[in-house]
Design a protein that fits this description.
Helices cover about 10% and strands about 40% of the residues. The protein is mostly beta strands. InterPro entries: LVIVD, Quino_amine_DH_bsu.
């Protein structure tokens, strides 16, 4: 990947999308709250009016009640060099896996292995033990010579997407604290890959990867926004991963992908198209529907959308437990103002928007995490990054509970995880990790 590509990605990667929606869900929600759709609409279409009415009500209900306290802080440009995704997996609930681009200039003092300004010597994967978030410990480092981005885990298999080369690394994580590299699968004609998700189907395991950007003038047909592909790699034998399929999604520079049964939700960087891809046959993926064909609502604030699920538990409550049925998809909105949109995904091929919150404090909302009916959202703002907490237990009316911002020198907050009532926040440009006690995040 070229340095030009790196420089263009530095402002932050998000996901762009336009909503799959129908008029009825938003109208019904507006009417539920007595927002007078007919009397307020004027010359606006009913969908636009319903959305505006819900947005006004959501802001009205928002409040700044968040109480936070920093309980630990770690700075390490060897272990935390430009972190982009952080995950806690059910197989290892006390470990955070952190993928990193390694773009912060290293010195012998900051990076024991050395390195020059602009190098990716500290790119790769870090594993952090947060069994006690007040005393986090780095337990493992895997160094890559190039930037990496997305990650996912299924059982004893961990996969990491290569941002710089375009492909996927496979790791054995039988010993969760010490991932062991197995192989790398290069994806032909994919100059970069960003996010990756694993899915098991018909006895096989597949990794689905968004292609992202293209800046290579030597590559036939390369165009910064021309690439729209999602790729599939058979990782059933993780020692011999094999690319098996590709699909043009119609989404420019696709980034975040979310699996829902036999479907992927795909959105792109600086793109307003949101695609649903059928992955029943990973070698013959196809687009079911995308915004230009079936959406009845588009808006500028849907730029760079990335989502996570609210699940319906066996007791009917919302939680994020693996194995429960996804009921709602909550997407962060990266615009100015930013916020969240809530989608009914009970029919996976046709997500329908049911709730919306836009708020000036939530500009550049990014890689969202759902935790017991609350959306915890990193805010990729300059000069001060931080996070927001949104109550989405009532999906028709998401409500901002508050925001927390770090010192002004801390910028580029893409990644966070939540453990109990503590938000573990990673800061890209300053190689830092904060554990922040946050009231009200538990069950």
């Amino acid at each position: 990947m070229s340095l030009l590509l790196f420089s263009r990605l530095l402002p932050g990667l998000g996901v762009a999308a336009a909503a799959f929606s129908q008029i009825a869900p938003m109208e019904d929600a507006a009417l539920k709250y007595g927002l007078g759709v007919d009397s307020e609409c004027g010359d606006k279409g009913r969908q636009e009016c319903s959305t505006s009415a819900l947005q006004r009500k959501a802001v009205e209900l928002s409040e700044d009640v968040l109480q936070t306290k920093v309980v630990s802080h770690l700075k390490d440009c060897n272990a935390m060099n430009h972190p982009t995704e952080a995950r806690i997996y059910p197989e290892a609930p006390d470990l955070v896996y952190v993928t990193k681009r390694g773009w912060v200039g290293c010195t012998p003092q900051l990076c024991p292995q050395g390195g020059e300004q602009g190098s990716s010597v500290a790119a790769g994967l870090a594993v952090v033990n947060v069994s006690d978030p007040r005393a986090p410990a780095i337990v493992h480092l895997w160094h890559s010579s190039e930037a990496v981005e997305g990650q996912d885990r299924l059982g004893d298999l961990l996969v990491v997407a290569s941002l710089a080369k375009g492909g996927v690394y496979t790791f054995d994580v039988q010993q969760s604290s010490h991932p062991r590299l197995l192989a790398f699968a290069d994806i032909p004609d994919a100059p970069s890959t960003l996010h990756v998700k694993l899915q098991k189907a018909k006895g096989k395991i597949y990794a689905f990867l968004s292609q992202g950007w293209c800046d290579d003038p030597q590559l036939m047909g390369c165009d910064r926004y021309g690439f729209s592909r999602v790729h599939s790699v058979d990782v059933t034998d993780p020692a011999m991963p094999m690319p098996v399929g590709t699909v043009h999604t119609g989404v420019h520079a696709p980034e975040s992908i979310t699996v829902n049964g036999n479907f992927l939700y795909v959105g792109g960087i600086e793109s307003q198209t949101f695609a649903v891809v059928n992955i029943t046959d990973a070698s013959r993926m196809h687009v079911v529907c995308h915004a230009n064909e079936c959406a009845t609502m588009t808006a500028s604030y849907y730029n760079q959308m990335v989502g996570d699920y609210l699940h319906t538990g066996s007791d009917g409550s919302f939680n994020a437990a693996h194995g429960d049925t996804p009921a709602l998809w909550v997407a962060a909105l990266w615009g100015h103002p930013g916020g969240v949109a809530v989608f009914n995904v009970s029919q996976p091929a046709f997500p329908k928007q049911v709730g919306l919150l836009l708020h000036k404090k939530m500009s550049r909302a990014n890689r969202i995490h759902i935790h017991y009916g609350k959306a915890v959202v990193p805010l990729e703002q300059d000069p001060a990054g931080g996070f927001a907490v949104v109550d989405v237990a009532n999906p028709l009316m998401p409500r901002l509970l508050g925001t927390m911002f770090l010192p002004s020198q801390d910028t580029r907050v893409y990644a966070l995880v939540v453990k109990d009532n503590i938000v573990v926040l990673f800061v890209a440009r300053t190689c830092e990790m904060y554990a922040i006690e946050t009231q009200g995040l538990g069950q």
